[in-house]
């Protein structure tokens, strides 16, 4: 009974923390963008504008919950929930500290890749069910972009698997006791980071919702809380990719002096802020440039990393 209660407390605690961080990240992004772009940002609702998120939620709840008359209503309503559910499920396998984490799967890394792959259905179904040409174009872009970068994301992590000898995320963190994998797997880290930005379709890779070309892409017809769910899913994706970078390349909770939980959140915050900085600093490429960049540069780099890592591991095991 105590074990069940402890597991339930663990799940509810992680879920509550994630949703709180998601809301906080919306405010942090606006404040940081204002700082980096030399403007005020939100500063009217509460001290330092911290209640701006509450005002936004009230606005979303009170907006008309409209569904286009020619839309596929069932799929239209279901699509925004898919991206939130898959992101939350992916967090289940991430070890936050030695004692905090929902489940310890021996195929945790494969589970994460599977959940990130399923998230594309949210965008595709949302665009298709809207019965709108801009939405359909946005969803087709998203499908091609996310499926292409899934290939590099998966392959970029195989070097980490070879070094750790496991798909278990706790064992991967344990294998970094002497040396974080960001050093021997620097190329894998760069490829995974870029693929993660594309998977979360954040700037500069937000072409599925490029507002100056496609109005708002796949969520053009969405409003109210269904529109809000797409954005909750996007911010959860930022936290998820940041947490995976910390776990796979930066030793997870490991660090001197401070408690493991503090170290994990310091590292997580650094990469979440880096995602926001990219939005403030980089322009959006053309769609053909994005796809060419992936297949002509990312794929060769990923294969090179795999070959070199495999050769080094075989050489070390043979001596």
Automatic annotation (TrEMBL):
GO function terms (MF aspect): NADH dehydrogenase activity; oxidoreductase activity, acting on NAD(P)H, quinone or similar compound as acceptor; quinone binding
Main location: membrane
KW Translocase (keyword) present: yes
Membrane disposition: Multi-pass membrane protein
Record-listed E.C. numbers: 7.1.1.-
Residue stretches in coiled coil: none
Alphabetically ordered keywords of this record: Cell inner membrane, Cell membrane, Membrane, NAD, Oxidoreductase, Quinone, Translocase, Transmembrane, Transmembrane helix, Ubiquinone
Annotated TM spans: 7-28, 75-97, 109-129, 149-167, 179-198, 227-250, 262-282, 297-316
The keyword Membrane belongs to this UniProt entry's keyword annotation: yes
Catalytic activity: a quinone + NADH + 5 H(+)(in) = a quinol + NAD(+) + 4 H(+)(out)
One GO term of the biological process aspect: aerobic respiration
InterPro entries: NADH_UbQ_OxRdtase_su1/FPO, NADH_UbQ_OxRdtase_su1_CS
A Gene Ontology cellular-component term: plasma membrane
Compartments, as annotated in UniProt: Cell inner membrane; Cell membrane; Membrane
The family this protein is said to belong to: Belongs to the complex I subunit 1 family.
NCBIfam families: PRK06076.1-1, PRK06076.1-2
Functional note: NDH-1 shuttles electrons from NADH, via FMN and iron-sulfur (Fe-S) centers, to quinones in the respiratory chain. The immediate electron acceptor for the enzyme in this species is believed to be ubiquinone. Couples the redox reaction to proton translocation (for every two electrons transferred, four hydrogen ions are translocated across the cytoplasmic membrane), and thus conserves the redox energy in a proton gradient. This subunit may bind ubiquinone.
Name this protein carries in UniProt: NADH-quinone oxidoreductase subunit H
Lineage, uppermost ranks: Bacteria, Pseudomonadati, Pseudomonadota, Gammaproteobacteria, Chromatiales
């Amino acid at each position: 009974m105590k074990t069940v209660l402890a597991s339930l407390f663990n799940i509810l605690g992680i879920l509550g923390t994630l949703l709180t961080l998601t809301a906080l990240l919306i405010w942090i992004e606006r404040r940081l963008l204002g700082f980096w772009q030399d403007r005020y940002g939100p500063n009217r609702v509460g001290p330092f504008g911290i209640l701006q998120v509450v005002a936004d939620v009230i606005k979303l709840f009170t907006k008309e919950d409209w569904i286009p008359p020619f839309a596929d209503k069932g799929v239209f309503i279901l699509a925004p929930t898919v991206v939130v559910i898959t992101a939350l499920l992916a967090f289940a396998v991430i070890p936050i500290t030695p004692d905090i984490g929902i489940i310890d799967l021996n195929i945790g890394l494969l589970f994460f890749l599977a959940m990130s792959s399923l998230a594309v259905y949210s965008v595709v179904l949302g665009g298709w069910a809207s019965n709108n040409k801009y939405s359909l174009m946005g969803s087709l872009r998203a499908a091609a972009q996310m499926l292409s970068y899934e290939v590099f994301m998966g392959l970029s992590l195989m070097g980490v698997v070879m070094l750790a000898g496991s798909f278990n995320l706790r064992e991967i963190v344990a294998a970094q006791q002497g040396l974080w994998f960001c050093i021997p797997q620097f190329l894998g880290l760069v490829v995974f980071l870029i693929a993660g930005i594309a998977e979360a379709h954040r700037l500069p890779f937000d072409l599925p919702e490029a507002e100056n070309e496609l109005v708002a892409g796949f969520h053009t017809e969405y409003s109210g809380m269904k529109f809000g769910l797409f954005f909750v899913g996007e911010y959860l994706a930022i936290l998820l990719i940041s947490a995976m970078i910390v776990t796979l390349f930066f030793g997870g909770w490991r660090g001197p002096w401070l408690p493991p939980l503090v170290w994990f959140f310091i590292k997580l915050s650094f990469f979440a802020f880096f995602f926001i900085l990219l939005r403030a600093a980089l322009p959006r490429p053309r769609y053909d440039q994005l796809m060419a960049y992936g297949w002509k540069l990312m794929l060769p780099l990923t294969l090179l990393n795999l070959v070199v890592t495999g050769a080094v591991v075989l050489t070390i095991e043979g001596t």
